[in-house]
Write a structure and sequence with these properties.
Layout: E1 7-14, H1 22-37, E2 48-51, E3 54-61, H2 74-85, E4 89-97, E5 113-115, E6 126-128, H3 149-167, H4 172-180, H5 185-201, E7 205-209, H6 217-221, E8 233-238, E9 242-246, E10 251-253
Parallel strand pairs: 5-7, 7-10
Antiparallel strand pairs: 1-3, 1-4, 2-3, 5-6, 8-9, 9-10
Helix pairs in contact: 1-2, 3-4, 3-5
The structure holds zinc ion (2 copies).
Length: 261
């Protein structure tokens, strides 16, 4: 499906005549931050350079249409107005599909979602429960912050823990506990985000609990939902990843990685 893969975009900020680039770069940084919190651009490393009478930023976005004004939220619109007031002109141009970039969900009506990311992911931390592809955040109603700050901050914390857990050198145990214990502060924040998004969308919104180690296949299969204590093992894993699902607590989990074939 064209236009549904991660896309490289070029954003041009035309300098007001006779001005240096300083104010324009400042505005560019502010606008890029707002676009990130609105899910319209991914990652946080954006080269910005000057070219003749303009500043240019190269960014990565979830889709070809990600920078369409129809997705601009309150804060993005405010930054654009600030630029207009300073005489800074703006142009958004999709450049090309990112080589190796991920595809976004294109389901017409997803039956539910899961909050899911890892230390390498640049994509939205919301996955469609039907196709398991990332869903750009700007497709959802804004969260209480007016953007998606809550979810993006959780993603940043999750990725920090996941990176420590992967590197196995510093705070490995503490980081693994944050990822896998449903009572950890990371899980509590993530589950609160799920609850808020479920309320906004009227669709089930699950939280994924990482599971690193277990003693035996037998005990692992008998594992119960850590929140309500009910049986939650699935005979057929969902998306070949989730072997556990509790509909009541909106939790998903995997079979311990040390037991995976
Ligand atoms: Zn989907
Ligand atoms: Zn439960």
């Amino acid at each position: 499906m064209p236009g549904n893969f991660m896309h490289v975009h070029r954003i041009e900020f035309g300098l007001p005549s006779g001005q240096t680039s300083e104010k324009t770069v400042e505005l560019a940084e502010g606008l890029l931050g707002a676009l990130r919190m609105n899910g319209q651009i991914c990652g946080r490393e954006w080269p910005i350079y000057t070219e003749e009478s303009r500043c240019v930023a190269i960014v990565l976005a979830p889709e070809q249409e990600s920078l369409d004004p129809k997705f601009h939220g309150e804060y993005v619109t405010r930054r654009i107005r600030e630029g207009e007031a300073l005489g800074i002109t703006l142009a958004f141009t999709p450049v090309a599909e990112d080589c190796g970039g991920a595809e976004a969900c294109s389901c017409h009506r997803s039956s539910g979602y899961v909050l899911f990311t890892n230390y390498l992911s640049l994509e939205s931390p919301v996955r469609c429960l039907d196709c398991f592809l990332p869903v750009p955040l700007y497709r959802f109603p804004a969260m209480p912050s007016g953007e998606y700050y809550e979810v993006i901050r959780w993603q940043s914390d999750y990725q920090s823990c996941d990176r420590l857990q992967m590197n196995c050198a510093v705070l490995e145990r503490a980081a693994t506990r944050q990822l896998s214990d449903f009572r950890s502060s990371l899980s509590a924040t993530g589950r609160e985000n799920c609850r808020v998004l479920e309320g906004l969308l009227g669709k089930p919104f699950y939280y994924y609990l990482y599971r690193a180690h277990a003693r035996s296949v037998k005990s692992e299969r008998a594992r119960r939902c850590p929140s309500c204590g009910q049986a939650w093992h699935l005979e057929t894993p969902l998306h070949s990843l989730f072997h556990y699902q509790c509909d009541q607590c909106r939790l998903l989990s995997n079979l311990a990685w040390n037991l995976s074939p």
